[in-house]
Amino acid sequence: MAVEINITYEGWLHCTAVHGPSKQTLSSDAPLDNGGKGAAFSPTDLVATALGTCMATIMGLVAQRNNLNIDGLQVQVIKEMTAAPVRRIASLKTRLVFPRDKPLSATDRAKLEAAAKACPVKQSLHVDVKTPVEFVYPD
């Protein structure tokens, strides 16, 4: 199934994107270190955001299928850029912190971890982009 996204370059390194099916909009802006105002997500910030939300969504699907509750899961993605050999994302370090009040068995943890690592965004990233993932469970 194809999804249409329409993007308008507004000038001054700022874009507005419209999601075809929902008509929701989002803005992007170049980061400060690349000539922008840093007034919105940069395009590479959106890649980091896509990775984190994809992992959470795929884990949510697995949780639903297995009657698990991961509501309140916190996902942090740290994006690091590099300029060598060209400006690009060097790494996207992801940390997933599970809610303290929702314990999970070792089997359920393994299912959720496999789901996160198999998310389509992670699978679509170039092999040179490092994508370490840390899973943090309550004690």
Description of the molecule:
- The chain has 139 residues and is α+β, with helices and mostly antiparallel strands.
- Helix content is 29%, strand content 29%.
- β1 (5-11) and β2 form a beta hairpin.
- α1 packs antiparallel against α2 (106-117).
- It starts with a strand and ends with a strand.
Task: Give keywords.
139 residues; alpha+beta; three-stranded mixed beta sheet; 6 strands
| End-to-end distance | 41 Å
Strand sequence of the main sheet, in spatial order?
1-2-3
Q: What gross morphology would you assign?
A: globular
Mean pLDDT: 96
- Element string (H = helix, E = strand): EEEHEEHHE
Helix content: 25-40%
Tell me the structural class.
alpha+beta
β-strand percent reads 25-35%
Tell me the layout of helices and strands:
Layout lengths: L4 E7 L2 E6 L5 E5 L13 H23 L8 E9 L5 E10 L8 H12 L2 H5 L8 E4 L3
Parallel strand pairs: 5-6
Antiparallel strand pairs: 1-2, 2-3, 4-5
Helix pairs in contact: 1-2
Short summary of the structure?
This protein is of the alpha+beta class and 139 residues long. The chain is built from three helices and six strands; from the N terminus they run E-E-E-H-E-E-H-H-E.
